[in-house]
Design a protein that fits this description.
- The termini are far apart.
- The chain has a single domain, classed as START domain (Alpha-D-Glucose-1,6-Bisphosphate, Chain A, domain 4).
- It has 138 residues and is an alpha+beta fold.
- The chain has 3 helices and 7 strands.
């Protein structure tokens, strides 16, 4: 039930991580996020929470559950019917591969077959935004 997407980017892993882990800047480059705010501090640390707003959805609190410094993070929504997700930056010659994944939790699994193609398109748009933002930041 996990949706996984990998993208090759011609940017250094450091640039990709800097962009990807700056959650509060996501509304600038992620077309599916209208606002992002840290509830604790903006640093990517286990237990820290971020509120993300998206069109046609209530604001959602995401709590960081795992971090590998400068490489990956995982987080999950604080709703019973929600998601768990993660992002990993993998160094490769000449750039980085970004692996993003999303997994439904609780009652969200019931409507997963309907949501999956919609979310696949959303993640593709997010990855295009990441590439554009990395180009600006490098």
């Amino acid at each position: 039930m996990t949706l996984i997407q990998e993208n090759l980017l011609p940017f250094s892993p450091e640039v990709v991580w800097r962009v990807l882990s700056d959650i509060e800047s996501w509304p600038v480059w992620v077309p599916t996020i209208t606002s992002a705010k840290a509830l604790d501090t903006p640093r990517m640390l286990i237990g820290h929470r971020f509120v993300l707003s998206q069109p046609l959805q209530p604001a959602t609190v995401w709590r960081v559950t795992r971090v590998e410094a400068n490489r990956s993070f995982q987080w999950q929504t604080e709703r019973h019917a929600g998601f768990e997700a993660g992002h990993t930056v993998i160094p490769i010659p000449g750039g980085a591969t970004v692996e993003s994944w999303l997994r439904p939790q609780g009652r969200m699994q019931v409507i997963w077959p309907i949501l999956r193609p919609i979310l696949r398109r959303a993640i593709s748009a997010e990855m295009r935004g990441l590439a554009k933002r990395c180009r600006v930041m490098s």
